[in-house]
């Protein structure tokens, strides 16, 4: 194969990652017919089937998977080299893609990104809000944001936010009708609003700690949500007790729409960290964002 095949290899990688010719064509800015033609030509040149096509999806064959294992790190190295060339520019430039939770995006990332992009017009920042545990290498993100307790060991992690606390909250009308729990065990007698994880599909077991004693409580109730904003709305509506990050409910607690309970069972825990692959050399633009995000006590 020659250098003229590099474009076809990049197209193959996009189709394999997107599992769709339509999405890959949109990502690359080419037509589906041009993409299909390029894939047929590449397979003919190799004498191998690289993709299995069905009416609903596209997936790599065994040969395609072997090619992917080689292509991903090679193209990542090329991306790193191209990014490093921006150091020769007078101003930081380039695109930074970050996957993050909604809470971190709103409370930490956006205030910094808003200032950074205003001051550096050649920097483009893409924030992808996803509550799941995204594989940043496979999905080609530059970095991700997770809580400290959920970090992967082979990543460089930088603290970007303060410690956090959880808060058990419900409306005054709910507590007037049902009373207040005094201990986590009392939650068994209450309507609790469950949160289901998008990534695993499992229900979140509420985590409490007091004087070194840790408890995980599986709660019951009529409502199950996969978004913290909805659990908070349900609590305000008097439908039960919600368990959310403290500052998420701070305004509603302050104005009396929600009342907090079990406060002495909610100890601080590690907050948000930005993480990225240890082998990746940060670009000047990424380093600038990282320094702006770095939490300083």
TrEMBL record:
Keyword Cell division attached: no
Superkingdom, natural source: Bacteria
InterPro entries cross-referenced by the UniProt entry: LysR-type_TF_proteobact-type (IPR058163), LysR_HTH_N (IPR000847), LysR_subst-bd (IPR005119), WH-like_DNA-bd_sf (IPR036388), WH_DNA-bd_sf (IPR036390)
GO molecular function: DNA-binding transcription factor activity; sequence-specific DNA binding
HTH lysR-type domain span: 4-61
GO biological process: DNA-templated transcription
Keyword DNA-binding: yes
PROSITE patterns on file: HTH_LYSR
Keyword vocabulary terms for this entry: DNA-binding, Transcription, Transcription regulation
Family to which this protein belongs: Belongs to the LysR transcriptional regulatory family.
Stored PANTHER family: HTH-TYPE TRANSCRIPTIONAL REGULATOR, HTH-TYPE TRANSCRIPTIONAL REGULATOR PGRR
Protein name per the record: LysR family transcriptional regulator
Organism of derivation: Sphingomonas ginsenosidivorax
């Amino acid at each position: 194969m020659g250098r003229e095949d590099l474009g076809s290899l990049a197209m193959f990688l996009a189709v394999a990652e997107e599992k769709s010719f339509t999405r890959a064509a949109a990502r690359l800015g080419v037509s589906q017919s041009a993409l299909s033609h390029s894939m047929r030509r590449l397979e003919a040149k190799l004498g191998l089937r690289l993709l299995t096509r069905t009416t609903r999806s596209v997936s790599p064959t065994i040969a395609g998977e072997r090619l992917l294992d080689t292509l991903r790190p090679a193209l990542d190295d090329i991306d790193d080299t191209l990014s490093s060339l921006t150091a020769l520019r007078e101003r930081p430039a380039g695109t930074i893609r970050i996957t993050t939770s909604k809470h971190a995006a709103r409370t930490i990332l956006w205030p910094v990104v808003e200032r950074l992009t205003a001051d550096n017009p050649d920097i483009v920042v893409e924030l992808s809000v996803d509550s799941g545990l995204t594989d940043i290498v496979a999905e080609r993100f530059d970095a991700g944001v997770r809580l400290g307790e959920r970090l992967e060991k082979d990543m460089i992690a930088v603290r970007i936010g303060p410690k956090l606390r959880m808060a058990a909250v419900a409306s005054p009308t709910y507590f007037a009708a049902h009373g207040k729990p005094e201990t986590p065990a009392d939650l068994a007698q209450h309507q609790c609003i469950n949160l289901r994880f998008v990534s695993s599909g499992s229900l979140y077991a509420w985590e409490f700690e007091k004087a070194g004693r840790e408890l995980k409580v599986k709660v019951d109730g009529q409502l199950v949500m996969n978004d913290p904003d909805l659990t908070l709305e349900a609590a305000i509506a008097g439908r039960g007790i919600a368990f959310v990050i403290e500052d998420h409910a701070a305004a509603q607690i302050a104005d009396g729409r929600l009342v907090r309970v079990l406060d002495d069972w909610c100890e601080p825990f590690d907050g948000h960290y930005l993480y990225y692959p240890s082998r990746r050399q940060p670009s000047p633009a990424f380093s600038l964002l990282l320094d702006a995000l770095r939490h300083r006590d």
